[in-house]
Design goal:
2 domains; alpha/beta; single chain; ten-stranded mixed sheet; two-stranded antiparallel sheet; DNA polymerase, domain 1; 11 helices
C-alpha cells in the first residue's frame, strides 16, 4: 500500500500529463496523454478530442518503457532493447565496424575505448567521430555497409549478443502479473524482430509490441512512435526503462516514471531520471 502511494506521488510530481490520483485513468489521443475520468464518473463523459469510452469494454494498461516498452495490465511499461534487454551488442558493433573499415580501404580502426565512449549514438555517428573529414553522405554509406555486412554475417551477432542479466526472470514476472510489454527501439523493424528472437525472448512480445523506429536511416523519433502506440489506450500509469537521455526524455511527452539502466561498465552518462538502476529486477517494484 505504501509503495502504491509513493508511486502516485512520484508520478504526480514528475509529470503534468500523468497525475497518479487514486481512481483516475488516462487516455492517449492525438493531443497526447490526458486524464480520462474518475472511476466514479459516468461512462458517457467525453474527454476533449476523444470518443466516449466504456471502461468495461477496454483493457486497462500500465505503460513501462525500457528502451523497450513494457505495458502492464493497469500500467504500460516501455523498455529499450539494446543495452537494457540485451548485453554485449557494442562488441558486435566494434567487430563489424572495423571489418567494414578494412574492406573499404581505411587504415583507421575503432578501439575499445572509442566503443565505450560512443556507446548509444547512431552507427553513422561512429564514423563521423573517427573520420571527421568525410562527408555526411559517406558516413551514411559506411553505416549502410555495416548493416549489409551484419545481415550477411549473422554469426558475428550471435557470437556477441546475449540476454542481459535477469531479463528472463523480469519478463516472466511481468507476464505473470498480467501486464502488457512493449519494446521501442531505434533499430530497423526487421532488425529488432531478429534481435528479440535471437536472445530468446520473443515469447513475451507479439510482433505488434516490438517497435523499430529506424532512427539510424529515417531519423524517426521514439516520442512519435510511443504516442502512436498509446493512442486510444486506457491506462493507469506509465513506467519508462532505458539507457539513454532520449529514453528518459520520453517522459516529457507521455509522463510516468523513468528508470535509467546504467549498464555495468558501459553507460557513459546518467541523465535525469526518477531512478538509477544497474539490476533489472529493481523495476519489479512497479509490478
Amino acid at each position: 500500500m505504501f509503495r502504491k502511494i509513493e508511486r502516485r506521488k512520484r508520478a504526480e510530481a514528475g509529470s503534468n500529463l500523468l497525475k497518479q490520483i487514486h481512481g483516475n485513468r488516462y487516455l492517449a489521443s492525438d493531443e497526447g496523454v490526458v486524464e480520462q475520468r474518475s472511476a466514479r464518473l459516468p461512462v458517457t463523459e467525453k474527454v476533449a478530442g476523444s470518443n466516449p469510452v466504456n471502461p468495461a469494454k477496454h483493457k486497462r494498461y500500465d505503460l513501462c518503457c525500457w528502451r523497450f516498452l513494457l505495458s502492464l495490465a493497469s500500467e504500460i511499461i516501455h523498455m529499450d532493447f539494446h543495452g537494457v534487454l540485451e548485453k554485449d551488442n557494442e562488441l558486435a558493433v566494434l567487430d563489424i565496424s572495423n571489418q567494414v573499415l578494412r574492406q573499404a580501404g581505411f587504415k583507421q580502426r575503432f578501439t575499445k575505448a572509442d566503443n565505450h565512449r560512443l556507446y548509444g549514438v547512431k552507427w553513422y555517428q561512429y564514423f563521423e567521430d573517427l573520420l571527421p573529414d568525410l562527408s555526411h553522405k559517406k558516413h551514411l554509406a559506411l553505416q549502410a555497409a555495416c548493416f549489409k555486412f551484419a545481415e550477411k554475417n549473422l554469426h558475428i551477432l550471435h557470437k556477441h549478443i546475449k540476454p542481459n542479466d535477469y531479463v528472463i526472470e523480469v519478463l516472466k514476472a511481468i507476464k505473470k502479473a498480467g501486464h502488457d510489454q512493449v519494446i521501442l527501439s531505434n533499430s530497423r523493424p526487421a532488425d529488432i524482430l531478429w534481435f528479440v528472437e535471437s536472445i530468446g525472448i520473443k515469447q513475451y512480445f507479439p510482433d505488434e509490441k516490438i517497435i523499430g523506429v529506424n532512427a539510424h536511416e529515417r531519423h524517426e523519433a521514439k516520442q512519435d512512435a510511443l504516442l502512436h502506440y498509446l493512442k486510444g489506450k486506457v491506462f493507469d500509469s506509465l513506467v519508462i526503462i532505458g539507457d539513454s537521455k532520449s529514453d528518459m526524455e520520453l517522459k516529457n511527452v507521455a509522463g510516468g516514471v523513468s528508470y535509467f539502466y546504467n549498464h555495468p561498465g558501459v553507460s557513459p552518462t546518467k541523465p535525469e531520471s526518477d531512478y538509477q538502476i544497474n539490476d533489472l529486477r529493481k523495476v519489479l517494484v512497479e509490478v
